[in-house]
């Protein structure tokens, strides 16, 4: 399983790190996940005792799918209803999630390689260094936030005695899951970009590329991305939307980089 990553300057010292949308992979993964507690128990009980980490991941994915379905239900609630108001609060909270966290969450553990696309004017070593930096920083930051969120779960669960939806508990539960996914994504990305002996550049000779048929890291300098980014220090919103269309990116995630402070 491979992924295409885009890296380019977006505003001053701010760089955008994002993965291209891969709908086929996400759909196949969701179809393999258990949808009921009975299916989950069957998979966990039938696995070997040594597959503890895989079982934990399976349970986490099961809870995440349930949370996504509940969120979809809130999204479809009639305007002005209590559920619709809760959905509005959730959107406000989600808008504070950093785009770097969204990027790291998009790196699954099944990934065997990445193709990094960047403007042709940038140095490949600099791009790889920035990728390693965001991966190393993410592994530290999200590990600390993950443990912090876990400690808050028992506290927020006490709000269950109130005759209202326990929004604080579900928010902390979501943040726990989100930080855990970002942590695993950081570790996987760091592993893929750290092996300097297996890097392939698209402009290398055919003889050299044949020596590494399936390298974990492919660096591709793109003239088209260079043209779309332009020479300015601040990429306009219009040009960002064009980049999203050409390279199949999530527009809302890219625009978040323009709104945050220098990373």
Structure description:
By secondary structure, the chain is an alpha/beta fold. 60% of the residues lie in helices and 12% in strands. A 5-stranded mixed beta sheet has the order 2-1-3-5-4.
Uncertain stretches of 5 or more adjacent residues = 205-210
Order of helices and strands: EEHHHHHEHHEHEHHH
How many domains would you count in the coordinates? 1
Task: Please tell me how large the radius of gyration is.
Answer: 20 Å
**What is the average per-residue confidence, as pLDDT, rounded to a whole number?**
81
The dominant shape is: globular
Oligomer: single chain
Strand content: 5-15%
Discrete helix count: 11
Q: Enumerate the strands of the largest sheet in spatial order, edge to edge or round the barrel.
A: 2-1-3-5-4
Strands, helices and their partners?
Blueprint: E1 2-11, E2 14-19, H1 23-32, H2 37-46, H3 52-75, H4 82-94, H5 99-105, E3 113-119, H6 124-157, H7 167-194, E4 199-201, H8 206-211, E5 217-222, H9 223-229, H10 237-247, H11 251-259
Parallel strand pairs: 1-3, 3-5, 4-5
Antiparallel strand pairs: 1-2
Helix pairs in contact: 2-3, 5-7, 6-7, 10-11
Care to give the gist of this entry?
One of its GO terms (cellular component) is mitochondrial inner membrane. The chain has 263 residues and is α/β, with parallel strands linked by helices.
Key traits:
263 residues, alpha/beta, 5-stranded mixed beta sheet, 11 helices, transmembrane helix, Mit_KHE1, transmembrane, membrane
């Amino acid at each position: 399983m491979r992924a295409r990553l885009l890296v380019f300057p977006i505003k001053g010292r701010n760089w955008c790190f994002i993965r291209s949308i891969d709908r086929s992979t996400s759909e196949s993964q969701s179809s393999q996940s258990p949808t009921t507690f009975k299916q989950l128990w069957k998979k966990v009980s039938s696995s070997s005792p040594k597959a503890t980490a895989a079982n934990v991941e399976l349970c986490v994915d099961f809870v995440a799918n349930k949370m996504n379905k509940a969120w979809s239900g809130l999204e479809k609630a009639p305007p002005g209803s209590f559920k619709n108001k809760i959905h509005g609060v959730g959107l406000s909270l989600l808008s504070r999630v950093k785009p770097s966290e969204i990027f790291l969450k998009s790196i699954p553990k099944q990934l065997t390689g990445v193709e990094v696309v960047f403007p042709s004017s940038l140095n490949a070593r600099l791009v790889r260094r920035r990728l390693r930096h965001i991966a190393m920083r993410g592994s530290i930051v999200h590990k600390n936030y993950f443990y912090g969120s876990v400690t808050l779960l028992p506290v927020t669960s006490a709000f269950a005695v109130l005759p209202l939806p326990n929004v604080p508990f579900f928010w902390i539960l979501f943040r726990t899951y989100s930080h855990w996914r970002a942590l695993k994504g950081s570790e996987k990305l760091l592993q893929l970009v750290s092996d300097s002996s297996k890097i392939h550049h698209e402009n290398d000779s055919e003889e050299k590329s044949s020596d590494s048929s399936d390298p974990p890291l492919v660096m591709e300098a793109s003239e088209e991305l260079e043209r779309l980014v332009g020479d300015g220090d601040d990429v306009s919103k219009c040009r960002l939307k064009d980049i999203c269309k050409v390279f199949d990116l999530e527009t809302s995630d890219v625009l978040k980089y323009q709104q945050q402070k220098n990373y």
